[in-house]
Amino acid sequence: MNLVLTVLEIVAPVFLLAATGFGWRKFGLDYPVEFVTRLAMTIAVPCLIFTALMQTEIDPAALSAMTLASLLAYALMGVLSAGLILVAGIDRRTFLAPTIFGNTGNLGLPLALFAFGDVGLGYGVVIFAIMAVLSFTIGIRLVSDQASILRVLREPMVWATLLGALFLWQGWQTPRWLTNSLSLAGQLAIPLMLFTLGVAVARLTPRGVGRAVLLSLAKLVIGISSGVAAGWALGLGPVAFAVIVLQMATPVGVSSYLLAERFRADADAVAGYVVISTLISVLALPVLLYFLL
């Protein structure tokens, strides 16, 4: 019973805040998603990434192992997802990238923080940063058949990750006044991302619900399997192992819908995939956490 209550304490703030955003939109209240998303991804999230890496108490060798494990996990996700798309006979441009890349930011980071504290957040940030780089390069190429290396170099999250890793490696710290300012800005990230997730899901018009259910369940199994395999292969510690499994199991991100819409894939089908996988995660992630804690 105590473990059940612990899981509830972890997931309740995450899903309640997302549900508040969902209700906000359904009541017809104004919410500038594009502006808030830009604010979060340009200022709040980079500040969170930089300060989390700079101030983490995780050994740099452990973070290096997590980096390798994350790359291995995404390689496994890519292979298994491609096999799923091939067997299912569905459009690669529409469904492959959403199956590989989950919502490691909006859902993964707050769950890692609430479940495993600052150490979990540090590991979660590494996975999120790697996912962002892969999504801006390989992910865009899968959807549009275009490379996007220059776009990666324009992303503040990438530079925040590189600077955070450098400060961690060298043992540097910014002045206290700057650290406090960056930390304060970073604290905006998680509530903004959760509220925006709820609003964004409420705005979507899903299609192909039956197919989305099957794909979402398959994505969940592939994600958990990839995280477990990568964690075992790299010999990750208990917290790092739990975080990578949790992050790889996250549902399809709203960014996948935006990419599908931008590059003229089947955006309505991706919207259904986002909505259904997010709803399934409301039940699946608490159960997964029960076994990971």
Please give a quick description of this structure.
The protein is built from 13 helices and no strands. By secondary structure, it is mostly helical.
Layout: helices, strands, pairs:
Blueprint: H1 2-26, H2 33-55, H3 60-88, H4 92-100, H5 104-144, H6 149-153, H7 156-170, H8 176-186, H9 189-203, H10 209-233, H11 238-248, H12 254-262, H13 267-292
Helix pairs in contact: 1-5, 1-9, 1-13, 2-7, 2-8, 2-9, 3-4, 3-5, 3-10, 4-5, 5-9, 5-11, 10-11, 10-13, 12-13
Structural overview:
By secondary structure, the chain is mostly helical. It is globular and about 50 Å long. The protein is built from 13 helices and no strands. It has one domain: Na+/H+ antiporter like fold (Up-down Bundle), CATH 1.20.1530. It starts with a helix and ends with a helix. The mean pLDDT is about 90.
